[in-house]
Specification:
alpha+beta; 8-stranded mixed beta sheet; 5 helices; globular
Length: 197
Amino acid sequence: MLPLDPVTLEGDVVRLVPLGVAHVDRMCEVGLDPEIWRWMPSAVNDRVGMKSFVQESLDMQHAGTGLPFATTLRATGQVIGSTRFMNVTVAHRRVEVGGTWIGTAWQRTRVNTEAKYLMLRYAFEQLGCLRVEFKTHARNSRSRAAILRLGAVEEGLFRKHMVQGDGSIRDTVYFSIVDDEWPVVKGRLEARLDRGS
């Protein structure tokens, strides 16, 4: 697997660009809705929190364990969210796609499907990954359904996996797509995108 260097991934609707501190204010314009952060390990409810979120993402990048993106609309450049490769393990050719949030107005649109497609294609076809992981709060039924719709396989429940920012205990569900599955998953995602979903 190749090391992760900053890269721009571009689709028909979204462009994933390397995340930077300069994105903080534009992320605040769409990303301070409490519902966005309901199931995340830590909530972001003001500019200080958003700046910390971005800095944490950049710290992962500097450590070689992550590659964060600002999710933007290709047509206008508007920042509408963020996502990242994280828990990068080069020796085992494994990455996780996570830390994802999308502004409320763009949820349940083509945006998430296309962003995940771009990241999966890059992971398997450029980086040479054997495995791409996803995880979510066990009680986040919407996220679980969305990950399954991508074509990921649910692998199991990690009980009492995290202590959330508010002190609550989180059970986490793990999913993955492996390289052998990617051709079929890719075809299904491309068909979905062709239908506009």
